[in-house]
Write a structure and sequence with these properties.
Blueprint: E1 10-16, E2 20-26, H1 61-74, E3 81-85, H2 96-110, E4 115-120, H3 128-136, E5 139-143, H4 149-156, H5 164-174, E6 178-182, E7 184-185, H6 193-206, E8 210-214, E9 226-227, H7 230-242, E10 247-249
Parallel strand pairs: 2-3, 3-4, 4-5, 5-6, 6-8, 8-10
Antiparallel strand pairs: 1-2, 7-9
Helix pairs in contact: 1-2, 2-3, 5-6
């Protein structure tokens, strides 16, 4: 069963394998998924092809801050992270840079031990304002599933033209990033020796501080995907470590 969309601006705290106790911040509309990708494996299902055509439904900055502050004040202990995520790609909020600054200021005032993070599909790293805002966060967990243009177009299915070389260059320019990559088998998947080799080359160009590789563990919209066996994930992580890159297989 696919996941339901988040109903409000705040969810959790959730126990995250990658971030520990994390309070999610959904800055995207509650009624629809808004994303620049239509990934074969998205836990929220397929992306409407017209989802980028309207700016309706995005929460006001003041509304997001009000909900985050109210939740933080209710919690007996602050979360480890305040994490921008939610119903699609969080950097698509029209006021994303201002949201980042406002949440950081709120964190400093109400929960100074918490860190800020984002789970992003990386597609907007080429925008200077977005890139600057991302750098102000404590942790940038960025997506890169593809090592070639064919894999990007077939597996992640961008809704707008996106060149793999520009994506890799933008991630390399971003600074300290953690990369996430989901690998799936099957006819619509991205797992195979040629793809892995191309992906490893892209990751080497980026030089992330860490890489997290994983596979399917919940229902997905595509019927043409299959989980990758754990030994294959471990082999990808080992190949990264052989190149001097910290890697974890989940």
């Amino acid at each position: 069963m696919l996941l339901e969309l988040k109903k409000g601006c705040v969810y959790g705290p959730v126990s995250s394998r990658r971030l520990g106790r994390s309070l999610g911040i959904n800055v995207l509309p509650a009624a629809r998924k808004v994303c620049t990708f239509d990934c074969q494996y998205c836990q929220y299902g397929w992306t409407r092809r017209d989802c980028l055509a309207s700016a309706d439904g995005f929460a006001a900055v003041a509304t997001v801050l009000c909900e985050v502050e109210a939740t933080l004040r209710r919690l007996p202990d602050p979360p480890a992270f305040l994490t921008f995520s939610g119903n699609g790609e969080p950097t698509l909020h029209p006021a994303f840079p201002r949201l980042v600054d406002s949440v950081i200021a709120l964190r400093d005032r109400v929960a100074p031990t918490a860190r800020t993070a984002i789970l992003s599909n990386s597609t907007r790293v080429g925008d200077p304002a977005v890139r600057a805002a991302l750098r102000r966060l404590d942790a940038r967990i960025m997506k890169l599933d593809a090592g070639s243009q064919a894999a990007l177009d077939g597996f992640n299915q961008p809704l707008e033209p996106l060149a793999i070389d520009e994506l890799v260059e933008g991630l390399g320019d971003l600074g300290e990033v953690t990369l996430q990559a989901l690998f799936a088998g099957g006819p619509a998947g991205n797992h195979g020796p040629d793809h892995i080799a191309a992906w490893l080359t892209c990751v080497e160009r980026i030089r992330p501080v860490a890489v997290q590789v994983y596979t399917l563990d919940r229902d997905v919209p595509s019927r043409h995907l299959a989980p990758v066996p754990r030994p294959d994930l471990d082999a990808i992580a080992a190949a990264l470590e052989a190149r001097g890159l910290a890697a974890t297989a989940f």
